[in-house]
Write the structure tokens for this entry.
Amino acid sequence: MTQTRTALLALILSLAGAAAAHAHASFEDDEAASESGFKAVLQIPHGCDGKATTEVQVKLPEGFVFAKPQPKAGWEIEIIRGDYQKSYDNHGKTVTSGPLEIRWKNGNLSDDYYDTFAIKGTISGFDKQTDIAFPVTQLCGATDKVAWDEIPAEGQDAHSLKHPAPTVTVTPATAAGHHGHDMAAMAGMGNTTVKAGSLEISGGALKAMLPGAKVGGGGFTVKNDGSEDDTLISVESPAAGRVELHEMTMQNDVMKMRKLEQGIAIPAGATVALASGGLHLMFMDVKKPFAAGDSVPVTLTFEKAGKVDYMLAVGDAAGGTHKHN
């Protein structure tokens, strides 16, 4: 019995040692909402086969933008910059380049200890749940290194990889309220500007709804810098059963609202605003009442510019009612 217990204890210790040896680089928090601020805290659990870590390199994925690394005592920081694959809005300013890789250099993290390396940034441009990878390389002196850069193929379990890259699961912005992320950042999304051909869409906004309400309203502004007229044909959103294009008009001193079956014209050289009191969007059969601070994704379809994904920020509750034909 004693020999059996001794053998079992040895096996447990051996498995524990093997697990520790293969513990991989990962994030303290591996879930975030799109269009929100996120602090990526990378955990480095061990060195290179017992040797101390002297450099940590982190490649930033597309969609993690405006990155700023946190300084660490005893380490130097190198920021490698370059062009993003697309443009991003930063408080009304269009940004097309920024940090693509962060390197903490000339440090000394003993294999006996673990440490964290933090990068603060914004996650933007995702309208469905997506895993984004941050390939990491540990250098231990001049020759030894461990690369955590393997990305699973579609349907593959990341745990089956020997050196998986640390990942963050990005959820759509409308789900951010369930995860406690940066709601203030989301509330400012209505200032985002998106371009589609000669069209520029900006100022997206919705009004918060009362509990139990099924109909919501809002809009955005479209500027046509081109030489050809275009037409907003339709709008879709996963947050509602359907979205209709409407117009408010005065008829015999009564404000009425009608559905625009033919869409909304966007003349060449003109700016068309969709907002309460005139042209606007009506969200029917809303699945969950819009709440202040949330953001709602929509897909806009234009006759010439095609489909455009956009986000509407939810502001204060609406006042008054509309009378339909």
User: Anything to note?
Assistant: The chain has two domains: 23-177, 183-317.
